[in-house]
Amino acid sequence: MTNRQTDIQHHISDDLLDAYRTGTLPHAFSVVVAAHISLCDECRARHEARDMIGGALLAGAGTAAISSGARDRIMAALEAPPPPPAPRGSGVFPAPVMAELGGRPPRWRMLGGGIRQQILSADREGSLRLLYIPPGKAVPEHGHRGLELTLVLQGSFADSEGAFRRGDVETAHDDIDHQPVAGPGEPCICLAATDAPLRFHAMLPSLLQPIFRI
Amino acid sequence: PSVTKELSDLSRDLIAVRDLRDREAFGRLFDYFAPRLKAQLLRSGLRDGSAEDVVQDVMLAVWHKAAQFDPHRADAAGWIYGIARNRRIDLARRKPLSQPEEMPELPSVEPDAGQVLALQQEAEHLAAALARLTPEQAEALRAAYFDEIPHSRISEMTGLPLGTIKSRIRLGLDRLRHELRSIAP
Ligand SMILES: [Zn+2]
Ligand SMILES: [Zn+2]
Predict the structure, then answer these.
(1) Domains and CATH numbers, chain A
(2) Does ipTM exceed 0.85?
(3) Which of B64, B98, B104 shows the shortest C-beta gap to A96?
(4) CB nearest to A22's CB, from B60, B64, B149
(5) Which chain A residues are closer than 8 Å to B169 by Cβ?
(6) What's the whole-model pTM score?
């Protein structure tokens, strides 16, 4: 079980929430939305309120006859053992992140400057990674070709868009160039999803980009 | 116990399934929800046999996940709707949809009667509030939150610009929020 946050300032947009609910969001972004809802009671309530609308519409909706025997079959199926329990959160990682980690702690890979990452998934639709940034360190300045969602799991970071703490999500579109800097105190651990490779401005990082799949 | 008296029959049955593993109560939930879920699946394009398989999956998940039902947060219809929505989506995806962490179970905590009743009332008024929306808003909310059609698809199907669809959904939600607030005690 992971602690939920009560002072979240940066939430997921209505559009992202709706896209998540219809299953059209690429996997990497879905995990960020599910992880944010895990930490944010406000967005969990927004999500559940939409299900309540669906439930209310179900009451007045049409019915289709169930074939005879279906009821007996399901009553018999109740005896079957339950499916394995859903993955649980651990430490700073809420359940959806633990599920991506396969239930194990992250295996960090050094990126230089004390920054570490673990790629959780990467395909044509987008990539999902965990980033570990020591206090006061900056992620190289970069722009985006598409959408980037960054959810803080530990510590904090700040950039031109504001300050982000545990539970906050930064939604960066392709018009944003930013340089997130980790706050003082704890290292900043965040979950970042992109639908296209990042564009780095410094020479070195862009050479490293294909190697490290940043 | 005094709280559950005020609940809808469906929510009371779901609590009986949760706390007592009551098979008769489960049978009543099946009789109510299975034909409605099946009709919804048929409308979304599934054939009869597969629609019924999905209904079986959903209702079995209701039985196994009942411990997660919390009447402070949802009524039976909304909660079961959520399970059905996830099942429908997973059928259409390569990877199952990432799920939020389940809320902790708090079996020792006495239900907060006020909150449970307020939620129940809200659920009851929701249908009435939906009926008072403009036809355009009602249609947009039904497409988005019942048929679960992506905004861009709704725009294609209706020939209306995406911005119009989005604003109808937002206005519909705002209106519901307003109506529900005005009935709050
Ligand atoms: Zn939120
Ligand atoms: Zn960025």
Answers:
(1) 1-62+88-214 (2.60.120.10)
(2) yes
(3) B98
(4) B149
(5) 14, 18
(6) 0.91
